[in-house]
């Protein structure tokens, strides 16, 4: 959550001019908050999916290597991922990403358009 929040704060600071133009043209604070929250949810969804796929790959690799070397361990005999647990973890990650995007979204909504356009 801290990483996503920091990334989103940096994005808001880098795009201050764009946000200022949007506000000057009549964008509502809700539309700016929705924009930043959508970006943070998208970022956490993609990274969570990539992490899930990578973890499945690692477990398959470990299972293959254990079978290749003949390692028979009761606890590690067949590593697997429970689909319901993985989807629950992904949902929790998306909710955490949305929560992490709230502070940067409020920052974006409170940007003064004149100051944002004046800054470089």
Automatic annotation (TrEMBL):
Homology family: Belongs to the ABC-4 integral membrane protein family.
Superkingdom of the source species: Bacteria
Family matches, as InterPro entries: ABC3_permease_C, Macrolide_Exporter_MacB
Location relative to the cell: Cell membrane
Keyword vocabulary terms for this entry: ATP-binding, Cell membrane, Membrane, Nucleotide-binding, Transmembrane, Transmembrane helix
GO MF annotation terms: ATP binding; transmembrane transporter activity
Main location: membrane
Residues in ABC3 transporter permease C-terminal domain copies: 2-113
Organism: Candidatus Moduliflexus flocculans
CC terms in the record's Gene Ontology section: plasma membrane
Protein name, entry field: Putative ABC transporter ATP-binding protein
A Pfam family per the record: FtsX
Membrane topology, from the record: Multi-pass membrane protein
Membrane-spanning ranges: 49-71, 83-101
